Amino acid sequence: MQGWFNIWEYIKVIQYINKLKDKNHMIISLDAEKAFDKIQHPFMIKVLERSGIQGPYLNKIKAIYSKPVANIKVNVEKLEAFPLKSGTRQGCPISPYLFNILLEVLARAI
């Protein structure tokens, strides 16, 4: 059964924490599945600005994400381009770094 091992590990951690005398603990579970696809571009730019990224680096990232579009090709026919409103670019070498910066902001907020 897929995922059963993870559930069992969660149960063991909860049982361990329940046995502790100091009950000042918190368990947080994050599901990052398809997280790259869900990042909102304006939010990403704000986080980068507040993280101290500036100048030509920020300008290049803004240029990449200012008006992104996607094209779909079915057999030989290219469909009409449509705007992308969220997500980091697949295959782009900076996408994992952008995601890590955003994840760091979340971790600090927790």
TrEMBL record:
InterPro entries reported for this sequence: DNA/RNA_pol_sf (IPR043502), RT_dom (IPR000477)
Enzyme class: transferase
GO molecular function: RNA-directed DNA polymerase activity
Domain Reverse transcriptase as annotated: residue spans: 1-110
Enzyme Commission number(s) of this protein: 2.7.7.49
A Pfam family that the UniProt record links to this protein: RVT_1
Name this protein carries in UniProt: RNA-directed DNA polymerase
